[in-house]
Amino acid sequence: MALAEVSYDMGVFMKFYQKFQYILEMPKMRPSSNWTVPTNINISVTFHHILGVNEKAHILISFLSSRQLWFNDYLVWKPEEFDGIDHLIVPLDFIWIPDFYIWEFVGENISPLMSYAYIHHTGKVICDQPIRAETSCYLDIFFFPFDTQKCLFTFGPYLHTVADITLGVHVSDEQLLSDSLQNLQDRGEWELRQINASIQQFYYQRDEWPMCVFTVKVRRKPTLYLVSLILPSAFLMLIDILSFYLPPHSLDRCAFKVTLLLGYTVFLLMMNNILPNNSGGTPLIGGYFLFCLALLVISLLESIFISYILNGLATQNRTVPQWVKSFVLGYMSQLICYKITDTREHHKKINVFTVGMIKGYEDELTGNREAPGQELEQFLKDTCDKVKDIRNSFEHFHIRSKDAEEWKEVSIVLDIFIFRVYIIFITVCMVCLGIFWSQWLTE
Fold first, then answer.
1. What is the DSSP string of 211-228?
2. Do you know which SUPFAM superfamilies this protein is assigned to (predicted)?
């Protein structure tokens, strides 16, 4: 019984072949009953994998399938004449197929070959071809890793002009995207966001060539780069900000900032291989790293400057200039709401008390000139001279202490002021950077 069915089926196919033999033996002829009427071909694409990008060479690597649909005016039959056969799958060598290619295709074509097409009894022909496409695409990495890329896939014939074929898209843009999202197998670094199809014409040497342009928008997933690049750099900057709370008169602050700067330099060397290299320009994240490095250097210079004031000017017995007192201890201290410790009255009381003591001794000695005992008088005079020397030493010491205290106040006011300006500057820059990168969420 099975052999009879096979024989019967083979007979049906032989009947079909005999009827359409003249068509199947001329596969290179365009299947149009009227040569003045172009053959309409509808195209659609479905993405299965987005394998990656080569930023340096501006190449997008993807795996997709294209479906081409057209009508063959000669391959039309009634299913009841062939025992209900309403469709067939035939080799591509037996029928005419359009000579389509992707204009942006670069590199070697290693796409798998599908040698069959689907034919419906109405004459509709469906040809599906899987394509591993390495296509040229301008990659703008300025907003890396929060970047969105738009790439073109232009399908067009190599020989046929608009006089021979016309192009169309048999599904909507929403359906193209939905089908691709359902068939995407690779959930890697890139995600498919949008597919738009448009029919255009290309003029070359007085001929008009049809083409179907698919605009594909893909968006990078920034999680990996956020964890490995942006957050570590932000943590190092946070540590640098907290280092301002170390005592400014301690040399440990400078040593700590030097160590932090060295660690950040090592971090930049490690992440250098991760950043994309592109002829289109430097990504914004490169400016972010350079900005953080510059802030670390400025922070170290600020600590060196404060240490110089405390350990240099304050120990050189130099008096604080009047303009520094007016600007730093006057205006700037009020601006940052810092209360200056007033030590002038304390020094004045000490000096007055010392001077009063010495004058009292001198008056006592002067009033007792007629007291008996010349040796006692001479002893008291010598004692008075020594007290004067002690008084001068104390006055000099108090002046030096007063200058040192003023230099210390100047360094504290400058340290607080620079720290607050540092915080404000970092906050403004980070907000601007966040606004730039937030555009990724709306694309």
1. EEEEEEEEEE--HHHIII
2. Neurotransmitter-gated ion-channel transmembrane pore, Nicotinic receptor ligand binding domain-like
Can you tell me whether residue 65 is helix, strand or coil?
strand
Q: How many Å apart are CA 253 and CA 314, to the nearest integer?
A: 18
| CB burial of residue 187 (10 Å; 0-12, 13-18, 19+) | exposed
Say which amino acid occupies 202: F
Q: What is the pLDDT of residue 212?
A: 92
Q: Which residues of the chain have pLDDT under 70?
A: 1-27, 186-187, 249-251, 278-281, 312-318, 320, 340-404, 440-443
How many helices (H) and strands (E) are present in the chain, helices listed first?
Answer: 11, 10
pLDDT at 279: 61
Contacts of 327 (CB under 8 A, 6+ apart): none
Alpha helices in 118-230 (DSSP H): 173-183, 223-225
What are the structure tokens assigned to 22, written together? 């003249």
Residue type, 91: P
> How many Cα neighbours within 13 Å face the side chain of 350?
16
Give burial (CB, 10 Å; 0-12/13-18/19+) of 28: exposed
The pLDDT of residue 198: 92
- DSSP 3-state of 150: strand
| Residue ranges in 243-343 assigned as alpha helix (H) | 252-271, 284-308, 322-324, 333-335
| Gyration radius from the chain CA atoms | 44
Spatial separation of the C-alpha atoms in residues 59 and 214, rounded to whole Å = 16
pLDDT in the model for residue 32? 80
pLDDT of residue 430: 85
> In degrees, to the nearest 5, what angle opens at C-alpha 331 toward C-alphas 325 and 333?
85
Residue 316: what pLDDT?
A: 60
- Rounded to whole angstroms, what are the CA distances from 216 to 7, 51, 85, 196? 50, 14, 39, 7
